[in-house]
Structure formats: C-alpha cells, structure tokens
Amino acid sequence: MTAPRLLIIGPQGSGKGTQGERIAQTYGIPAVSTGDVFRANVKEGTPLGLQVKAIIDAGDLVPDELTSAIVRDRLAQDDAAGGFLLDGYPRNLGQVGDLDAFLDGRDEPLTAVIELSVPRDESIQRLSLRAAEQGRADDNEESIAKRLSIYESETAPILDVYRERGVVDAVDGVGTLDEVFERIVVALTARGIAPSA
Ligand code: AMP
Fold it and tell me: Is residue 56 domain-resident?
C-alpha cells in the first residue's frame, strides 16, 4: 500500500477545499490548508493574522518563507506521520523547492497530486456564489481576478514539475460533489492508495 501523501491543486472555486476535506476524512489523514490557517489567524487577530491580513484581502501571496515555515511545523506533527493532504500549498516554484527540501529529508515524497480542472467561467461563477454565501473579504471582483491570474502564472507551472515525476492525476472538477469525489478515489486507487478502514 502506498502512503497518502497528497496535494490537491486547482484554481480558486474549483471545489478543492471541499474535496480536500472529504479526502482527508476518507483516507484518515489531516487536511493542511494554508488558506484556512491564514484565515483562522486573521479571525483570531494573532500576530501572524495581523501580518497577513492586507496581503490576503488584496489577493496577493503571503511570502514563501512564512508560508513554508507554517507547513513544515504542521507536517512535523504526529498526526501527519502516516500521510496528509495539502490544499493550497505549494503555490509557486519556490514553495515546491521548500517542500522538496523538507520531504526529501524524511525520504517521503508526495505520492499523488490531484489536479482539479474547472473552466475559468465556472470558477468565477462559483466564487461569486461563495462571496454571497460566506462573505469572504477576498471574494471581491478585483481580488478574484488577481488570484486567478496568479494561479495561471505562478501555480499552474508547478504542475509541470510534478508531471515529470509522474505523480499527477488530472480529475475533471465539473459535476456533483459525489461524482468528482468518486473520480478522485478511482485515481488514487489506481496508485495503490486506499481509504483507511
Ligand atoms: P486559499 O483559501 O487557498 O484560496 O487562500 C487564500 C489566501 O491565502 C490566498 O489568496 C493567499 O493570500 C493566502 N495563501 C494561501 N496559501 C498560500 C500559499 N501557499 N502561499 C502564499 N499565500 C497563500
């Protein structure tokens, strides 16, 4: 059996947060979402939250050094020893290098990268809906446009790196939650990654 050391990647509004939670539950691993960590800190008004709030609201990326340190600390915790699901990290080539340095040191590379594809129009539509439902400060028109453009210019290129390593599974993100989740399970099963009992 292959350990579930997973990354889910897709444009904002692709549903990766929701699918990530489900994967984590089904495979018995923690979901590590950098976006969630930052939002929780902003909400609590911690020093980290105060440091990143303006960056997040504008739709820019938090500096790599800060983000990578948070992920390293989280992955070093006991509950991530058997596997984990990364959501929203790494997000650029610098962060891929940081993550490699950490995982190579443990001889524990990522075993699958799930690429959730959703057409740009549909992403924007879903984000506008989420803005109305959840009132996220960064779900305004300007920030959405910036985040999608950063995704295309900085995040999508990291897929080439992982493709070369043969770990990417492209999954169609259009459909019901159950349909998309089923596609993910099929892809992981083909890699010998099985749900926890
Ligand atoms: P998300 O919920 O993944 O869309 O993240 C929300 C916001 O948090 C992003 O727009 C960034 O400002 C910040 N953020 C989340 N993950 C990262 C990351 N890996 N690197 C830099 N900034 C991030």
Answer: no
Q: Which of 14, 55, 56 to mutate to test the pocket of ligand 1 (most atoms within 8 A of CB)?
A: 56
pTM attached to this predicted model: 0.93
pLDDT of residue 140: 82
- Asked whether residue 74 is domain-assigned, the answer is no
Pocket of ligand 1 (CB under 6 A): 12, 34-35, 38, 55-56, 59-62, 67, 88-89, 91, 95, 138, 147
Instruction: Provide the domain limits for residue 182.
Output: 5-32+83-190
34 CA to middle of ligand 1, Å?
6
Confirm whether 178 is domain-assigned.
yes
Residue 36 CA: nearest ligand 1 atom is 2
Closest CA to ligand 1's atom 6: 35
Q: Is 72 noted as a catalytic residue in this protein?
A: no
pLDDT level of residue 193 (50, 70, 90 thresholds): very high
Instruction: Tell me which of 116-130, 160-174, 179-193 is least confident.
Output: 116-130
The span from the CA of 169 to the CA of 172, in Å, is 10
Per-residue pLDDT tens over the stretch 88-109: 999 999 999 999 999 999 999 9
- What strands, in cross-sheet order, belong to the sheet with 5-9? 31-33, 84-87, 5-9, 112-117, 168-172
User: Which structure tokens are listed for 197?
Assistant: 């009992």
Give a yes or no: residue 10 inside a domain.
yes
Q: Can you state the angle between helices 64-75 and 47-58, rounded to 10 degrees?
A: 120
